[in-house]
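Hi Q.,

Before the meeting this afternoon, I wanted you to have the iron/sulfur cluster prediction in hand. No need to reply - just skim if you have a minute. The sequence and ligand are here:
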Amino acid sequence: MRPDAIPEAGPRLARFVAEGAHGDMAWMADVSRRGDPRGLWPAVRSILLVGMNYGPAGDPLAVLRRRDRGAISVYAQGDDYHDVIKPRLKAIARWLVETAGDGVDVKVFVDTAALMEKPLAAAAGLGWQGKHTNLVSRRFGSWLFLGAVMTTLDLPPDEPETDHCGRCRACLDVCPTAAFVAPYRLDARRCISYLTIEHKGPIPRELRPLMGNRIYGCDDCLAVCPWNKFAMAGREVRLAARAELKAPPLAELARLDDAAFRALFRKSAVKRIGRDRFVRNVLIAIGNSGEAGLAPEAERLLADPSPLVRGAAVWALARLVPRERLARLRARLPAEAEPAVRDEWDVALEPTAPAGAAAG
Ligand code: B12
Ligand code: SF4
Ligand code: SF4
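Predicted structure with the ligand bound:
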């Protein structure tokens, strides 16, 4: 496709950023660089878009019913897809240079901060941007990773794909946090994928109960898309789900220290968020589990060195044990130095706060 094929993407990105929908992903605000591929590389003449199928083998939403387990989104259950797709893109780029001869320049992109891969892929005919904003393919449903090769070579463009969402709105209606402000428009600040992966601080209190047991990413809007009936399980072995990441017990995840976290998530995208943010997510799931048997896991983490973890532990425990027990635990702990964690305690011990397993 040609680099001038997505004139509407820049203004739409500008609106997204103006509304603050990008949350604290500050790099997205660079609209002049991101809105048009030529802003990144003025010499670009053609862009090749690549999709890699990572369709799940089973029902990706089944784990949501197992409240003592953590749900890791399909894309993160195997090896980090960046590491899998990048060598393929480089091979395509090398082939292009070898075939076209001297003087041809290439650049490779996969989920780098800059390129807007979805509108580019739609313009290249790989699929269309569905109402959930991701690229939907008639052959692979919602399960494609995207990557791009830019080149100074002039190549004949493919036809763009047209929108086949019709009157369907399954993805909009299923979203647990009502993150879509309108069809085709997401407020990332409410998206569980953003909250569990990108957001560094405490998760907004009102969104925590809506997250269920989703501890890394979210697949709900992708999984309900009717176009997935044509999808097939991905064949790339490195992207296949590792058995230990399909439905890991929350109790085990809550015990991970730094070294154990890095060992479990070696070569996985999950590793990038670090142990503290991950255990924060696990504690939200424990708080949502309704399983009093998980309370000791949260209780132990009340004394964790990370304030992010301590704060989430207070919230989780407040959902699982009676307020009197919580008050006794606080009295036994040393004075809390971190204002955000003190705030969690104050809210959890408020007489109006929902207390105990009945909190739901
Ligand atoms: C930032 C980001 C996120 C953010 C924000 C997501 C978002 N929708 O913007 C968060 C952290 C929430 C996120 C989540 C996920 N992400 Co992400 N993410 C990105 C990233 C890095 C940039 C996306 C971006 O530029 N967003 C800015 C907005 C403004 O752009 P946009 O979404 O294209 O918005 C368009 C529409 O809103 C549309 N539009 C606006 N108004 C209107 C009106 C009408 C009428 C129409 C028709 C269209 C329209 O036009 C806009 C411009 O094209 C890309 C990689 C990349 N470099 O492109 C991966 C990428 C989009 N993510 C990806 C994936 C897999 C996910 C998750 C599924 C992961 C998971 N399982 O948890 C979720 C899906 C959540 C969702 N429903 O979008 C894949 C998607 C592959 C695909 N098939 O589309 C990408 C392409 C990475 C990759 N290389 O494969 N992601
Ligand atoms: S990924 Fe989950 S939270 Fe985010 S928009 Fe889709 S359904 Fe909603
Ligand atoms: S679920 Fe329906 S509305 Fe959403 S992307 Fe798929 S076809 Fe479009």
